[in-house]
Amino acid sequence: MSDSDLRRKFSRAVLKISGEALRAEGSKDNISPEIVERMAKEIRSAVRDAGVELAVVVGGGNFWRGASASARGMDRATADYVGMMATVMNALALQSALEEEGVTTVVQSAIEMKNVAEPFIRRKAERHLGEGRVVIFAAGTGSPFFSTDTTAALRANEIAADVIFKATQVDGVYDSDPKTNPDAKRYDKVSFVECLSKRLKVMDATAFSLCLDNDLPIVVFDIGVNGNITKALSGEDIGTIVTGEE
After folding, report:
1. What is the spatial order of strands in the sheet that 218-222 belongs to?
2. Which of these, 178, 194, 196, 198, lies nearest to 186 by C-alpha position?
3. Which residue in 28, 52, 70, 101 has its CB near the most CB atoms, within 10 A?
């Protein structure tokens, strides 16, 4: 399948959004209502116009980072559980914004909290998607020591998604850090093998291995540009696509 075909022939996708993307630069607020509203409008456009079945995994880094807390002396498992709670707060904020836009949304949590979210049940998630609801997966995998990148890869494979869209602060995958190297080269398309051989940072090792082993494409794009979520989910040529093809 060609690059253009791959970008346009998906029907079910997972969108991975970092927690930091929900916070306005320089703001003391952990969640920016304006940013969440913009994301919700773009997701609504993609779901309605492109007809994609969409699941979302949102991080919690705008509130808490388990690894950082662990480095400062907190028990790592406990620190990670706190981080999982942070993802639930972000998921509920995004759900509220989506429903304000008329998008029916379900939050499924890997840690049971029946007053605010359904428990994660794979078949139920697939049924929601098939009925046109956006499903937001919260609380990570439900176990410590796993990132929300890994959650996105795991859930995408469980629900048989066609692609993972990883929304980041850069416009794709580079051969070096574009923030420190003005000559860094951006890839339009790169293979899993090349990512490994050149040590390109796409996702953490566990998440990347899940995608590699199951030949699940990843599209990395810049979420900070207005309209990019809609463009990505609509299959437009944006960011970098990572595939199993050489």
Report:
1. 118-119, 105-109, 134-138, 53-58, 12-17, 163-168, 218-222, 240-243, 189-191
2. 178
3. 52
Split at pLDDT 50, 70, 90, the class of 229 is very high
Going by pLDDT thresholds of 50, 70 and 90, the confidence category of residue 146 is: very high
pLDDT tens for 17-37 read 999 999 988 888 899 999 999
What's the rounded Cα separation, in Å, for the pair 178 and 221? Answer: 14
Enumerate the H helices of the chain as residue ranges: 3-8, 33-50, 66-71, 76-100, 122-130, 148-158, 192-197, 205-213, 228-233
User: How far is Cα 183 from Cα 149, in angstroms, rounded to an integer?
Assistant: 28
Distance of CA 244 to the CA centre of its chain: 20
Report the chain's C-alpha Rg in angstroms: 17
Residue 241 pairs in a beta bridge with 189, 219
Q: What are 47's two structure tokens?
A: 């779901």
Question: Domain ranges in the chain?
Answer: 3-243
Task: Name the residue with tokens 């139920």.
Answer: 124
Residue with tokens 């346009």, as numbered in its chain: 8
In CATH terms, 3-243 corresponds, of 3.40.50.720, 3.40.1160.10, 3.90.180.10, 3.30.70.100, to 3.40.1160.10
Q: What contacts 27, CB < 8 A, 6 or more positions away?
A: none
Residue 1's pLDDT band, with cuts at 50, 70 and 90, is: very low
